Amino acid sequence: MSIAQALTASSRGGSRWLLLASLALNLFFIGIAVAIAVRGPAPPPRWDPNVFVRVERLAGTLPPADANLLRGAFQTHHDAIESAQEKNHTAREHIHETLRHDPFKIEDLRAAMAETRVARQNFDQVIQGAFADVAPRMSSAGRHAVANWRKPKTRSKNQ
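^ that's the sequence the OP posted. Answer follows.
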């Protein structure tokens, strides 16, 4: 066998391996693409810090008439809710900022925590006021849906 024949034979073998490697790589990428397509988009997070987002999710689980009542109540109280929500978020962020201070002062942290308690209580009162305004006008099914929304799952004694 001449050198030219040996080189031709070895290059054919190398071409085969290159072809197989290319095919394997293409199949790998196609598999990833199919897996992503089958899985679909990620679901939205279960909890959102914006109360209007959470109320919209709740409204989506209610009978249509009750959903419209709930949306209307939160629209009526929108400015008060938004203000209370912003104060609550700002107060919580103040705690984070206080924890980052060097030198750390416990008195500042306690003051920030007290501010947060007041802001949270005000926020709760505004939200609960909106629900109290709308609940008497909702159907029994709507009130029950609100009462059962995000009901915590109970664990059995065997778990």
